[in-house]
Amino acid sequence: MKILEIDIETAPNVAYVWSLFDQNVPIDRLVAPGYTLCFAARWQGSREIMFHSVWTDGPEAMIAKAWALLNEADMLVHYNGKKFDVPTLNREFVLVGMVPPSNYHEVDLYQVVRRRFRFASNKLDFVAQQLGLGSKVRHKGMQLWREVMGGVEKSQRVMERYNKGDVRLLARLYTKLLPWINNHPNRGLWVDNPSKPVCRNCGGTHLKKNGSEKRFTLSYNRFKCLDCGANLRSRISIKGQRNANIMV
In angstroms, what CA-CA distances link 242 with 206, 214, 223, 237? Predict the structure, then answer.
């Protein structure tokens, strides 16, 4: 299974505004829409973090490389990517006349954090620090974006470190939260003729029986993955547990 961990950085929209508070900006005040500045990505299991940007590749070549990676991936791992990264890249693809990349699964760790936990903040930096996974690369804030768009090479190098740092943080968080992801694509489907039961979340084969689970009129064997910690159950029910007196 080819899993791509990905994060993008974008330029802001530029507009004329009459006030700095509570603005609803109409289209005729928009000077320039935002665009993708750069992205960093890594194949799970690889040490190399790929980086492409408008200043190193040019806009169209950068977008073509993003499309090629998504087209190759079986699954994406991102943080708020379902609402931000993926739709933003899709906009870039259609603007240059590309067709959609091949279908892929998505694991949005932001949605996992919101659904399964109650942190004081759901920001990646805060959650990662709370879990002892490190923190984002520090920078000058909006000034960094101004300098990157203005062609300042030193700031562009900082942006690259920042973008790659987010992917490292994303990878650590994915590993930490893996047993909590109860809608993870089933990695067993990417194993040809497995000789042993395979963990749905991590693909591991070190499983321990952990009692049984009752579902409507049937019972199933329950397992704990000793590799990632995920809770699993058998796909086939325990024989002899069907009871005609149980109503559905």
Answer: 29, 11, 21, 9
Nearest to 166 by CA among 51, 26, 1: 51
AA identity, residue 75: M
Give the domain ranges of the chain.
3-15+30-180, 202-233
Classify domain 3-15+30-180 at the CATH topology level: Nucleotidyltransferase; domain 5 (3.30.420)
- Which helix (H) or strand (E) element contains residue 171? helix 153-177
pTM score above 0.85? yes
DSSP H or E segment with residue 144: helix 142-149
What residue type is assigned to position 236 of the chain?
A: I
Least confident of 9-23, 145-159, 233-247: 233-247
Tell me the angle at which helices 59-72 and 85-95 cross, rounded to the nearest 10 degrees: 120
72-94 residue pLDDT tens: 999 999 999 999 999 999 999 99
Cα(149)–Cα(156) distance, integer angstroms: 9
C-alpha to C-alpha distances, 227 to 95, 176, 205, 230, nearest whole angstrom: 43, 12, 8, 8
Phi, psi dihedral angles at 207 (to 5 degrees): -115, 145
How wide is the angle at C-alpha 61 spanned by C-alphas 55 and 67, nearest 5°? 125
